[in-house]
Amino acid sequence: MRALVTGGNRYIGLHLVFELARRGHEVTVVNSHVADLPEGCRRIHADRREPGALAEALRPHRDEFDIVFDNTAYSVPDLEPMVELFHGRVQQLVFTSSVAVYKRSFVQPVGEDFRRHSPGDDDARKAYGVNKVRCEDHLRELWETTGFPATSLRVSHTFGPRTPLVTREPMIFKRLEEGRPVLIPAEGFPFVHLVHVQDVASMMASLCGNTTVIGEAYNVAGAELTSVEGSIRLMAKAVGVEPDIVHVPMELAR
Q1: What is the rounded distance in angstroms from the CA atom of residue 7 to the CA atom of residue 11?
Q2: Which DSSP string do the residues of 70-95 spell out, in sequence order?
Q3: What is the pLDDT of residue 113?
Q4: For residue 7, what are the CA distances in angstroms to 29, 35, 142, 216, 245?
Q5: pLDDT at 190 over 90
Q6: Contact partners, residue 200, CB within 8 Å, separation at least 6
Q7: What span, in angstroms and rounded, lies between the C-alpha atoms of 136 and 225?
Q8: Facing residues of 233 across strands?
Q9: 24, 116, 176, 182: least surrounded by Cβ within 10 Å?
Q10: Can you give the C-alpha Rg of the chain in angstroms?
Q11: What does the pLDDT read at residue 19?
C-alpha cells in the first residue's frame, strides 16, 4: 500500500516507517526534522505547528496515499486538515491516541470499555489525555456520520531505542547510575502497562488493508504491567544498583 506517516523522524513513527518499508509498502513521511530513512522512502517537509503548513505541503499529494498514520495530532484542530485533505481519498486513517484517555483505575489491565476522561474536562493537568479523547470522539462521529475511515490506537507506555523524551527512562537511568534519589509521587501505585516500541510499529503496520478495524478504538499494550515503583526497581536491577526511592506526599507532588 501507499502509506503516509506524520512525524516519522523519531521513536514510534520512525520504527513504523522502517517496518512499513520492510513489508514492502511505499512510504512517504511528512515532518519538520530530517532523519535517516529507509531506502526509497520519500520525505515531505512541513511543520504542522505552523497554521496551514501541513495542508499546503500535502495538498499536491492528496490522491497519492491508501493509508495515513497520524502520529502527531494532539487536538481536534490538528486533525481537521487531515480530514479535509483525505476524506474520500484514502482507505484508512490511523490515529495514534494514548491510554492517557482513561481515568485512573484500580482494576488492571484497563479495557477499551473503561471510563475515559470527560471531553469537557478543562483541568490543565489532564489536557493531553482530554485532547486525545476529543480527537477520538471527533473521528468516531465522522465515521458514523460521513463514513470517514478512521481507527484510534490507545498506546500504553512504550519503551525501547530512540525514545525522544529525556524526562522518561533516560533521566531515571541517569539518576540511578549517579546514585541520586528517584522521586515518586505518593505510594507509587499507578500502574504502567508496558509495550516495546517495535511491537507497536509491527501492530500498526499490520492494520494496512484491514477494514475490520475502521471505526474502532483499541488499546496497544504488551502482556506485562507494573507499578511506577516497580518500573524504577526494574530499571535499577538492569543498572545493577539499589534505588534510593523517595516517596513524595501527593499534596506536594501535585
Answers
A1: 9
A2: E-S--SHHHHHHHHHHHTTT-SEEEE
A3: 97
A4: 7, 10, 23, 23, 35
A5: no
A6: 12, 15, 16, 155, 158, 220
A7: 24
A8: none
A9: 24
A10: 19
A11: 98
